[in-house]
Structure formats: C-alpha cells, structure tokens
Amino acid sequence: MPKYLAIITYTAEGLHGLMDKGGTARVEASRDFVASAGGTLESFHFALGGDDAYLVCDLPDNAAAAATAIYAAATGMVVNRMIPLLTADEVDRTVASRLPYKAPGS
Description:
Elements: E1 3-10, H1 12-21, H2 23-36, E2 40-46, E3 53-58, H3 62-74, E4 78-85, H4 88-96
Antiparallel strand pairs: 1-3, 1-4, 2-3
C-alpha cells in the first residue's frame, strides 16, 4: 500500500481544539480518520516551528490520500500537505527507465 507523509499546520481554532482535547485524542482521531479512507496511521509526531505535526500513513491510492487532505482542510482547522513517499525499490525502477530528456536551451 502506498505510503504518504502529511505535514500539518493547525489554524488558531485547530490549536484551541488541540489544547482542549490533548495530543493523545488528536492521534486517535487521526488514526480513525485515516482508517475511514481505507488506510493505517503508521506514526504521528507533533513538532515545533512552522509545522505542527507530521503523520506517516498507508493509504490505498492517490485518490484516498487526496480525500483525506481535502476533507481535513475543509474543516478550516488545519492546513496540510500530502506527500507521496517512495521506497528504494521504486526509485531503482524509476532511474532504470533512462528517459531521454533535453534540458531547456540544449
């Protein structure tokens, strides 16, 4: 199953919800949310700085990943980026394709 990295930034309202319910409740809600899209939550880490949380999850496909990103963002509580992650084998297959590319100006 494809793996994705979700980078989460909470809005002010989302941070108030986090403060009210706590981190453990947020992780469990995220686990249930990802499961509703047919996936599993591998890890959830809160962070300091520009991003508030990093989630690694397995989802059936890009459509399921897009659905989780869209429905979470539609709440107005989070801003997120969903990044597909590649395995080493996928990178090996990718670079083995040897596609001919002409750089601009060449």
